[in-house]
Amino acid sequence: RVLARFTLARALDRSDVLDQALADWSIWFTETDKTGITEYNSPTYAVVTAIPLGRMLDLLPDTEIAKQVETALACVLADFSWHYHAQTGLLAGAMSRSCHGDFLRNSFSNLMAYQQYGAKIRGISLNPAFVATSNYQQSPESVEWALAKKPGTTVRASIPGSGVRRATYFGNQFALGAKSGPAYGKQEMSVTLVHPSKRQPMLFLRQNPDSGDAVYSELCEGSLLTGIAFRDPPEIGSQHGWFRLVLGPTEDFNAIEVGG
Hints:
By secondary structure, this protein is α+β, with helices and mostly antiparallel strands.
């Protein structure tokens, strides 16, 4: 809506529409600065956030508002770069919303990687026109970090507004990510494992859409301990479910162990 009003204000030379756009932007920027972007690490919605911000820069004069827009955009794309897994061309880490096209490499994130890093286009869709409307390019340092393999690196982030913490560990070939905190929604992937595979390069934990249980995780390099606090506990058994995932020590991994 903010982008639409900035666009209309420019096209129609309407100062009243511009004033409304500036007011809307002030609300968005102030609240986002307090809470963070709750639609975290989404292969679709990180891009849907970044592209309008980039387009807004083309419509704004070099003012304090433009600096705010560029700051927000740089933060969104930095998070994208830090979670980009160069070996597979996928985003790694827990995701607020994801769908089949995302982990099959046919998604907005693939188009963003093509625009920013020169990655190979993996699928065919009508979305490239949307991504192409922004001319913004990340800094060379951010691009270099995205394309690095990042072995031994743990990327941590938090969303204060929703109480979600997330961590992603990059091995030599794989990337293991998890979140801790309340459920986000039906398309959330609480745990993901990205690895170079031709058939399915991403494994993930997705709960029953009707459950919405909180997930708590602790990640230490290639080992992950995750607990699910059942909102509706089963009649028999514990109110909590735990599982442990350990990746083998080889360059890639040769074993996955899951224990109750």
